[in-house]
Amino acid sequence: MSAKKVPKITNNKTNQGRLICLGLGITLGSQLTELARNQLAAADLVFFHSNTHYLAHFLQQINPNLVDLQPFYCPGQSRSISYQAMIAAVINAVQAGNNVVWACYGHPGIASWPPHEAMRQLKLLGYAAKMEAGIAADACLYADLAIDPIAQGCQQFEASQFLFYQRNLDVSGYVILWQVAIAGDFSLCNLTPNSRYIAVLIQHLLHWYPPEHLVILYEAADLPIWQHRAETLPLSQLAQAKLNQITTLVIPPLEKKQINSQILDLLGVPADHALRQQ
After folding, report:
1. What's the pTM value of the predicted model, to 2 decimals?
2. Predicted pLDDT of residue 1
């Protein structure tokens, strides 16, 4: 399949372009909303990342005017450079007067800086740009692992940010670390795990959890015929586990939530009533 070339900038004031960033969901096809499908079909150009040939084939059935952004990635090059080139290509297409859709894996606004930046720049230039929600990996995680993030509480961090910044963990709730395979990579060049960085992550987590605490390695299913991954192992064995680009580390609660008696007294709520709500 050949992707359509990005048009050059024109000064078309009668047919001003616009951008819609939408989510394709995680499981191909089955999580695409009707609104997103209609927007894909109506677009002059659809930008996407061809992480699998299945995606390109699927999108081509809806709209053949595709622009594959995968070639913007270059081995050994910082992803920040690739992102800037993608953003420029999308902005150029909008400025050429096109109705542009940027179709993103999962939710277009989660763990995806380029769509946010393209929208920001286009709005400054006076163009219409909006984002449509999509089913993200966390929604799949809650369903596949039967987790209610409200019941126990849930903290989420990108794994590298968790290491680079001072964070306090609430071990009475769930902790989710995204992109754990590339935890500690400051270069934005690597897509495979660095054993030394993973060891640092484990050591850091041991400030809150014992080494035998059971954690879950989760991966959502990309295709309806596949099964999700939910591998349970002790935290101390994380360095020996297989970590892929889409692997997420889920850390279940270590202890029960503690009643805040002082606040309950101020609210006039009996402690035994609060315990029943847990």
Report:
1. 0.84
2. 40
Residue whose entry in the numeric block shows the structure tokens 């000064």: 11
Q: How far apart are CA 109 and CA 118, in angstroms?
A: 11
Note the pLDDT of residue 51.
Answer: 65
Predicted local distance difference test score (pLDDT) of residue 15: 52
Task: Say what the pLDDT of residue 189 is.
Answer: 65
Predicted confidence at residue 11, as pLDDT, reads 43
Is 171 in contact with 255 (CB distance < 8 Å)? yes
Distances (CA, A) of 4 to 102, 198, 227: 14, 40, 34
Return d(Cα 250, Cα 230) in angstroms, integer: 9
CB burial readout 153-171, b (16+ within 10 A) else e: ebbebebbebbeeeeebbe
Average pLDDT, consecutive stretches of 10 residues, N- to C-terminus, the chain (278 residues) = 45 70 93 96 94 86 95 84 94 97 94 94 96 95 96 95 95 97 80 89 98 98 91 97 95 92 86 61
Cα–Cα distance between 92 and 75 in angstroms, integer?
25
> Residue 168 corresponds to which tokens in the numbers above?
């306090």
Contacts of range 33-42, beta carbons closer than 8 Å, 24 or more positions apart? 33/132, 33/134, 35/132, 36/103, 36/132, 36/134, 37/62, 39/101, 39/132, 40/101, 40/103, 42/99
DSSP state, residue 3 = P
Instruction: Characterize 36-71 residue by residue with b for buried, 16 or more Cβ atoms within 10 angstroms of its Cβ, and e for exposed.
Output: beebbeebbbbbbbbeeeebbeebeebbebbbbbee
Torsional sign, CA 31, 35, 38, 39: negative
- Residue 278, classed as helix, strand or coil, is coil
pLDDT at 246: 92
DSSP reduced 3-state for 231:
strand
User: Both tokens of residue 146?
Assistant: 């039967």
